[in-house]
TrEMBL record:
Keywords: Membrane, Transmembrane, Transmembrane helix
Transmembrane segments: 20-44, 50-76, 88-105, 111-132, 159-184, 204-226, 238-257, 269-287
Protein name in UniProt: Uncharacterized protein
Length: 309
C-alpha cells in the first residue's frame, strides 16, 4: 500500500499565509540565535552589563514577536476560524510602526526609510495585515480550500517547493528594502546599509533588478511545484524548469571542477545541485505514479481490507 495522506484544506490566501509564517518563524529563530552569539561573548568578556541586558531584551522582544506572529499565522493557515489573534497582532504592530514614524517626524527625523522600520512596514502592514483580512473575509463567506490525496513523493515535493518559495520571497524582501533605502542617495554617493558601506551606482541597481527577477522566477517555480504536488497531471512545467536549473548547476560545478579542482567547487553550489536534483527526482516519481483516481481507489481498497481483518 502507498503512503497516502489527505492534505489540510487551505485556500490560496491560507497557503500564502503559511509560507509567510514559516519564513517569519525562521527569521525569529535566526535573530534569537544570532543575538545570543553576539551577546554571550559580551557578557563573558566583562563589557557593560546594562548595555548587554538592554541588547538582550531587544533581541528577545524582536525574536519573540516574529515567532509569535509565525505561530499565530500557521494556526490561521490551518484553520481560518483562528485568524482573529493573528489579525489583531498585525494591526497592533502596524499601529506601533505608525506611532514610531510620527514620533520620528516630530523630533525632526524621517525614519520610514530606515531598513528595520521599512522592513517591518512592508511585512506587517502590506503583507501580513492584508493576508489576515483576506483569510477572515474567506472565513466569513464560508470559503474553504481543496483537499488533496498525496503520496509521500508529493508531500516531499510540496515541502521542497515551499522552500523554493521561501528563498525567493526572502530575496525579494531584501532587494526591495535595499532598493528603497538607496533611493534617497544620489549616483556615486556612499550609503551605509546595516553597517556595510556601499557606493550607489547603476551597476548596483542593475544587480538588485537581476536579483529581484531571479527571486520572482524562483517563486514562480515554487508555485508550479506546489501545483504539481497537488495535481500530478500538472507536474510537467515544474519538471521542465527544475531540469533546466539542474542542468545549469551541473555546468557550473563542472566548470569550477575543471578550472580549480574539487576544492574550487563551493559548498552552496553543491547544496543547490543536491536540492535541485532532489526536486527533479521527486517530480519524475510524481509524474510516473498512478492518477489521483487510481490512488483513491487504492486507498479505499486498502481501508476495506483493513476493516475486514
Amino acid at each position: 500500500m502507498r503512503d497516502l495522506e489527505l492534505s489540510t484544506p487551505r485556500t490560496p490566501a491560507q497557503a500564502v499565509l503559511r509560507i509567510v509564517s514559516i519564513l517569519m518563524g525562521g527569521m525569529g529563530a535566526l535573530v534569537l540565535v544570532g543575538g545570543l552569539i553576539v551577546l554571550i561573548p559580551s557578557v563573558i568578556g566583562g563589557s557593560d552589563f546594562w548595555a548587554a541586558v538592554t541588547f538582550g531584551v531587544m533581541i528577545l522582544v524582536v525574536a519573540g514577536l516574529l515567532i509569535l506572529t509565525a505561530a499565530l499565522g500557521i494556526a490561521a493557515s490551518n484553520n481560518s476560524a483562528r485568524v482573529g489573534p493573528y489579525r489583531f497582532l498585525c494591526y497592533l504592530v502596524g499601529l506601533g510602526v505608525l506611532v514610531a514614524i510620527a514620533w520620528g517626524w516630530g523630533v525632526g527625523t524621517f525614519i520610514l526609510f530606515d531598513p528595520v522600520v521599512l522592513t517591518t512596514t512592508i511585512v506587517y502592514v502590506l503583507i501580513c495585515s492584508r493576508l489576515a483580512d483576506k483569510v477572515k473575509e474567506e472565513h466569513d463567506n464560508g470559503v474553504r480550500g481543496e483537499t488533496f490525496l498525496r503520496s509521500r513523493h508529493q508531500r516531499a515535493l510540496h515541502l521542497l517547493s515551499e522552500v523554493i518559495i521561501l528563498k525567493g520571497v526572502l530575496t525579494i524582501v531584501v532587494v526591495g528594502v535595499l532598493g528603497a533605502a538607496l533611493v534617497v542617495y544620489g549616483e556615486g554617493e556612499r550609503a551605509l546599509i546595516s553597517g556595510i558601506p556601499v557606493t550607489v551606482s547603476g551597476t548596483l541597481y542593475a544587480l538588485l533588478v537581476v536579483g529581484g527577477l531571479s527571486a520572482g522566477l524562483a517563486v514562480l517555480v515554487g508555485c508550479l511545484g506546489i501545483r504539481g504536488s497537488n495535481r500530478p497531471e500538472k507536474i510537467v512545467p515544474f519538471l521542465v524548469l527544475a531540469s533546466i536549473a539542474l542542468a545549469f548547476d551541473v555546468v557550473q560545478v563542472a566548470g569550477m571542477f575543471v578550472e580549480r579542482g574539487i576544492q574550487g567547487v563551493t559548498f552552496d553550489l553543491m547544496l543547490d545541485l543536491l536540492f535541485m536534483g532532489s526536486c527533479v527526482y521527486l517530480a519524475v516519481r510524481v509524474l510516473r505514479q498512478p492518477s489521483p483516481e487510481e490512488l483513491m481507489a487504492e486507498a479505499v481498497g486498502a481501508a476495506m481490507v483493513s476493516a475486514e481483518e
